[in-house]
Design goal:
Blueprint: E1 20-23, H1 28-48, E2 52-57, E3 60-66, H2 72-78, H3 88-98, H4 100-103, E4 106-110, H5 116-122, E5 127-132, H6 139-144, H7 146-149, E6 152-155, E7 165-170, E8 173-178, H8 196-210, E9 216-221, E10 224-230, H9 235-251, H10 255-258, H11 268-280, H12 285-295, H13 297-304, H14 307-313, E11 319-323, H15 331-336, E12 341-346, H16 353-362, E13 366-369
Parallel strand pairs: 4-5, 5-6, 11-12, 12-13
Antiparallel strand pairs: 1-6, 2-3, 2-4, 7-8, 9-10, 9-11
């Protein structure tokens, strides 16, 4: 490998049947992202029957989605037609659009072979690698030319199943465990009061958690993870982080954010970053002045107005929240209600699960217990 976790750490692969390296010189993190990301999309495809995509950064998904509708905001942002809805490209557009600030320089994982439309899309975004189970004629070569020929292209074997046992060496200690391979569809109760859309979102959410650094919570809407809270030391911070990301995604759909004045010469990613700061009310003091200089005083006054945010977020609905571990207190539910959550899927089994279930019922939220913990480290 080019290097290990950091440039000063030499690294090499010593065994196993990994993906075929088509182009580039990957680091250890590139391999870890590619391996985990492909398992996520492969499992999501199996569970839902739809093409799946993930945007991976630092061994957790920034976004994940199955093929579906591309709304007007995503269509304009990523310069793809809404007619592409249902395609493999649509899955990646929806995955990347969830948290485009985090997706910058991502590893792209796709559950189906790369077609011409998806390859064209990938040439227009800032990403570092792609892993897929195949490439239609000419697409691998076109992608290999990206980033001056340094773009990483991996081809995964979709029929290859990982070994039953996993081993890890940590500071001279080797630990071994059975791979987590319980099908998520087998633990989602068939009698749970979920319609087709909520069931699909629950399945995707559970798969996302299986490949996200714990503790983790995912918020899914219409087949796309619009908010992922990963790697927190307590559960409620996961919920708050996922909820903040979901609300920012939703606020980007408000005309006040979507219709910010165009600025000559501004790159798409810079505009996206400003829109996310604006939507999430995240600007520093210095950024406020820069924002006013770029977009005008009316835009700054809108930034300071909380009323339109509150009204718009009040319309966010139909979100399914999945949790990789049990929800220990009802405050998780209280925070979830602020992000349009209508279904909660969690392992259950804590001493306070009854209180959590009661809080969900009080908020009109469907509460589903799977009995399956999905910690991932």
């Amino acid at each position: 490998m080019r290097y290990g976790m950091n440039p000063h750490q030499p690294a090499r692969i010593v065994g196993g049947n990994g993906p075929r390296l088509v182009n580039g010189e990957p680091s250890m993190i590139n391999y870890l992202d590619a391996l985990n990301a492909f398992e996520l999309v492969r499992e999501a495809d199996r569970a839902t029957g739809l093409p799946a995509a993930a945007s991976f950064k630092h061994v957790s998904p920034a976004g994940a989605a199955v093929a579906g509708t591309i709304d007007g905001v995503a269509s304009r942002t990523w310069r793809v037609p809404t007619a592409a809805s249902g395609s493999l490209a649509s899955a990646y557009v929806r995955a990347r659009d969830a948290d485009p600030k985090s997706s910058l320089g991502d590893v792209v994982a796709l559950s189906r072979p790369v077609d011409a439309d998806t390859a064209e899309l990938l040439t227009t975004v800032i990403c570092d690698a792609v892993i897929a189970p195949g490439f239609e004629s000419g697409t691998a070569g076109r992608l290999s030319a990206k980033r001056g020929g340094r773009f990483l292209v991996f081809e995964a074997d979709p029929t290859l199943e990982p070994p039953v046992l996993e081993r890890r060496d940590v500071l001279g200690v080797t630990v071994e465990q059975e791979r987590d391979a319980v099908p998520v569809e087998s633990v989602l109760p068939t009698d749970a009061p979920l319609d087709t859309s909520a069931r699909l979102d629950a399945l995707l959410g559970l798969v996302v958690l299986r490949y996200t650094q714990s503790n983790s919570v995912a918020m899914i809407r219409d087949g796309a993870a619009v908010g992922i809270g990963a790697g927190q030391q307590n559960r409620v911070d996961c919920v708050r982080l996922a909820g903040a990301k979901a609300r920012t995604w939703w606020l980007r759909r408000h005309p006040v954010v979507d219709d910010l004045p165009s600025v000559d010469g501004m790159r798409r990613q810079d505009r996206l970053n400003w829109q996310m700061r604006f939507a999430g009310r995240e600007m520093t003091r210095g950024q406020r002045q820069e924002f006013a200089d770029l977009f005008g005083g009316d835009a700054l006054r809108a930034y300071d107005d909380e009323q339109w945010r509150a009204e718009w977020c009040g319309a966010l609905d139909g979100v399914t929240m999945t949790s990789d571990g049990y929800l220990p207190f009802r405050d998780n539910i209280d925070h979830a209600t602020e992000s349009g959550v209508r279904t909660v899927v969690e392992p259950g089994g804590s001493t306070r699960t009854g209180e959590v279930a009661a809080a969900a019922a009080e908020a009109g939220i469907t509460h589903v217990q799977t009995g399956l913990r999905l910690f991932h480290h």
